């Protein structure tokens, strides 16, 4: 028989076991988010293609045609889309997971399960959208008759990095949002600015070399550069920049987890 | 000797209540105070002391619950019942003390937690089941049973937002009823649904208890507590006030809460404090006991620090099986023009046609726009109706059944096949014993 001890400030060992026993909830919550997101829409899942497609067109025109940014011998729209893919994943995952706790406040105040599941499942739900858009990228590459280089086998690493970065930021924002609803306004700004700060519409090589390390502090720089390197392969990896980004993601996710776990116990009281 | 299922030692839960966050809880406040910190930390500290009040929702609670016990937790609003359940179901952590629980626990603090209106009944069964801790395989196995219990088979693929509230509750309870925990924690979930459905739920919980599992049950419905539980725990101001056999506890509970039982209720947003709700006889004496057919005066003493224009007040008299009658300004349209300063509103229920049972009075105050609620719908008083029905002309052999009968008796008249007519009414006030003696004496003279 399982014995459970509830004590002030002691939940740690139990937590990871609970996470395992509630593992199916990851799936169910992500499934719910996906189902609900496209209920009563005419285009349905099509939105996860239309959205990046339109953004791609705008960015291609603005940066490629009007701004005449260098493309490094790759069709500019392909360059944009390969950066857009991880960026859209990151930005939707960040805003969805950031809002997830507040949106599920009825669950939090009425039933117990590790709250981490809510965050992770909303990242998973965004990840499914990411996969659908990825299929579109494959189509785009066939259209341009552009074969990916051998580097493509490293792609899973960068997908993982993107996942970790989204989760890390999502944990911070979600936990902070419980107390400070101000983040409801901050997150859209972050998404808006992030699109221009991150190398989505251009290559990070346009950033002067002496600022590259500083620039890489934005974890999405490493992720987007990595995606381009895997899919298009024209540009060399900026190793020290990548190292900074990876370190940034690790710091983000460990600190995010720690802060989340610390505040999690009071969610039901504060929310 | 049965084993212990739950041990609770010195459990305490403290909430820090800010006084209606004059400064805001938002980030601006955090940033502001961080920036001001070096300059005026003394001042902010003093302010904070004024603003924040410690409130112990639970304090030094010690309990031991054996396996297979069915326990009712009773107490007034704010006594700590919900906090206790929230700690036991791990929604919130205690500030002090510890709890040891032996066995798989399921808690049901609300029916239909996690239901999503856009999803269909079928989808919600899976979602809700998973949230309550069932595995996918378990849900698939019990799926048909759940659907059968809920009686909504034909609407299984309709989004639940199109359900009637009755269907919604039935489906939600059906999922919860098929949990198979060793310990079940239930909060007031039976307060929803129609009477037939409530009986079904009670039956399900009864059979659950009969199968030797541990149940902790919070309810304001004393009849439900009495019929389900053997042991009752009475919480008062966050502490265990009494603990013992259900009949004795409920008895003393009622004796103590009858009469003046109002909790001061305040809503700082509107500057209104309800200082007292008293029940009085038609002669103006405060009382917690009435006889069938008596007039009952509900008297609310309030203090409005700000002007409140045209509020809408309503009272409801609630018996064990639900609402009996109401006085509602929302319907009758008679409203005070203005509340300002201290004052009173009274409502006299004329010759209450109630059988001897226990009742509560609930109150709600709405703002002039109807939507905003100044005082949320809550129990403000409690009273017993006592009396010998024989004095009202009742002569059945089963008068004790009156305690479980539908409580409201409007005057009625039987007409029997032989043409006899008999009036029955609770409204006629019988003569008090001394009066009767006096009239006997008069007759003899």
* Quaternary: heterodimer
Note the beta-strand portion of chain B: 25-35%
CATH architecture descriptor name of the largest domain in chain B: 3-Layer(aba) Sandwich
CATH class of the largest domain in chain B: Alpha Beta
Over the alpha carbons, how many angstroms does the gyration radius of chain A reach?
A: 20 Å
The tally of strands of chain A reads: 1
Terminal CA distance of chain B reads: 69 Å
How are the strands ordered across the major sheet of chain B?
5-6-7-3-8-9
Q: Which word captures the global form of chain A? A: globular
Helix percent band of chain A? over 70%
CATH H-level superfamily title of the largest domain in chain B: P-loop containing nucleotide triphosphate hydrolases
Number of domains of chain A: 1
Low-confidence stretches of chain B: 20-24, 44-49
- Helix vs. strand class of chain A: mainly alpha
The main β sheet of chain A shows up as:
none
Q: Can you characterise this structure?
A:
The complex is a heterodimer of chains A (271) and B (445). Chain A has 271 residues and is mostly helical. Chain A is built from twelve helices and one strand. In chain A, helix 6 packs across helix 7 and helix 7 packs antiparallel against helix 10. The longest helix of chain A has 28 residues. The mean pLDDT of chain A is 89. Chain B has 445 residues and is α/β, with parallel strands linked by helices. Chain B has two domains: 201 residues, P-loop containing nucleotide triphosphate hydrolases (Rossmann fold, 3-Layer(aba) Sandwich); 186 residues, abc- transporter (atp binding component) like domain (Coagulation Factor XIII, Chain A, domain 1), CATH 2.70.50. Helix content of chain B is 28%, strand content 35%. Chain B contains ten helices and 20 strands. In chain B, the strands form five sheets. Chain B has a six-stranded mixed β-sheet, sandwiched between helices. A five-stranded mixed β-sheet of chain B has the order 12-18-17-14-15. A four-stranded antiparallel β-sheet of chain B has the order 10-11-13-16, with no helix packed on it. Strand 1 of chain A pairs antiparallel with strand 4 of chain B, so a sheet runs across the interface.
């Amino acid at each position: 028989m399982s014995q459970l001890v509830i004590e002030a400030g002691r939940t740690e060992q139990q937590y990871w076991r609970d996470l395992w026993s509630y593992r199916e909830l990851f799936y169910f919550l992500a499934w719910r988010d996906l189902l609900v997101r496209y209920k009563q829409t005419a285009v349905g899942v099509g939105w996860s293609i239309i959205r990046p497609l339109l953004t791609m067109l705008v960015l291609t025109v603005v940066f490629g045609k009007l701004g005449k940014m260098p493309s490094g011998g790759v069709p500019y729209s392909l360059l944009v889309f390969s950066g857009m893919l991880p960026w859209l994943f990151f930005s939707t995952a960040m805003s969805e997971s950031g809002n997830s706790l507040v949106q599920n406040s009825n669950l939090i105040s009425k039933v117990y399960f590790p709250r981490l599941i809510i965050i992770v499942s909303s990242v998973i739900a965004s990840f499914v959208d990411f996969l659908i858009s990825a299929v579109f990228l494959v189509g785009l590459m066939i259209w341009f008759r552009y074969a990916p280089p051998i580097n493509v086998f490293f792609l899973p690493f960068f997908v993982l990095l993107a996942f970790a970065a989204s989760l890390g930021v999502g944990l911070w924002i979600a936990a902070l949002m419980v107390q400070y609803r101000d983040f409801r306004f901050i997150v859209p700004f972050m998404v808006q600015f992030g699109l221009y700060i991150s190398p989505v519409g251009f290559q990070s090589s346009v950033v002067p070399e002496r600022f590259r390390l500083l620039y890489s502090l934005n974890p999405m720089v490493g992720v987007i550069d990595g995606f381009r390197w895997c899919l298009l392969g024209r540009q060399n990896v900026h190793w020290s920049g990548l190292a900074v980004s990876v370190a940034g993601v690790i710091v983000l996710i460990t600190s995010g987890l720690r802060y989340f776990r610390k505040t999690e116990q009071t969610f039901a009281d504060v929310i | 000797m049965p084993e212990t299922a739950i041990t609770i030692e010195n459990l305490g839960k403290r909430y820090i209540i800010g006084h209606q966050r004059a400064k805001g809880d938002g980030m601006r406040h955090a940033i502001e105070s961080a920036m001001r910190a070096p300059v005026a930390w003394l001042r902010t500290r003093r302010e904070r002391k004024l603003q924040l009040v410690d409130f112990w929702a639970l304090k030094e609670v010690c309990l031991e619950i054996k396996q297979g016990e069915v326990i009712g937790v009773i107490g007034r609003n704010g006594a700590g019942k919900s906090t206790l359940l929230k700690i036991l179901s791990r929604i919130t952590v205690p500030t002090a003390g510890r709890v040891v629980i032996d066995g798989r626990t399921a808690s049901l603090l609300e029916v239909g937690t996690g239901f999503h209106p856009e999803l269909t009944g079928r989808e919600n069964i899976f979602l809700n089941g998973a949230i309550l801790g069932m595995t996918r395989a378990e849900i698939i196995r019990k799926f048909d049973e759940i659907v059968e219990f809920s009686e909504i088979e034909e609407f299984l693929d309709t989004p639940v937002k199109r359900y009637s509230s009755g269907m919604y509750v039935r489906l939600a309870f059906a999922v919860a009823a098929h949990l198979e925990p060793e310990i079940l924690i239930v909060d007031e979930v039976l307060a929803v649904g129609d009477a037939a459905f409530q009986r079904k739920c009670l039956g399900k919980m009864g059979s659950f208890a009969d199968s030797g599992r541990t149940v902790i049950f919070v309810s304001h419905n004393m009849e439900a507590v009495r019929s389900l539980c053997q042991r009752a725990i009475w919480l008062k101001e966050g502490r265990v006030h009494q603990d013992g056999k259900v009949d004795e506890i409920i008895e003393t509970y009622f004796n103590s809460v009858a009469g003046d039982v109002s909790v001061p209720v305040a809503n700082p947003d509107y500057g209104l404090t309800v200082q007292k709700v008293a029940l009085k006889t038609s002669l103006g004496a405060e009382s917690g006991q009435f006889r069938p057919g008596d007039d009952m005066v509900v008297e609310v003493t309030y203090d409005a620090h700000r002007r409140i224009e045209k509020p809408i007040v309503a009272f409801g008299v609630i018996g064990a099986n639900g609402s009996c009658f109401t006085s509602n300004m929302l319907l009758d349209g008679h409203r005070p023009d203005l509340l300002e300063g201290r004052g009173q509103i009274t409502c006299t229920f004329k010759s209450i046609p109630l059988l001897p049972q226990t009742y509560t009075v609930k109150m709600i105050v709405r703002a002039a726009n109807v939507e905003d609620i100044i005082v949320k719908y809550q129990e403000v008083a409690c009273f017993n109706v006592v009396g010998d029905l024989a004095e009202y002309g009742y002569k059945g052999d089963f008068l004790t059944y009156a305690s479980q009968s539908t409580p409201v008796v409007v005057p009625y008249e039987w007409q029997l096949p032989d043409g006899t007519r008999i009036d029955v009414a609770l409204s006629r006030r019988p003569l008090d014993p001394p009066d009767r003696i006096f009239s006997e004496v008069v007759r003899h003279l």
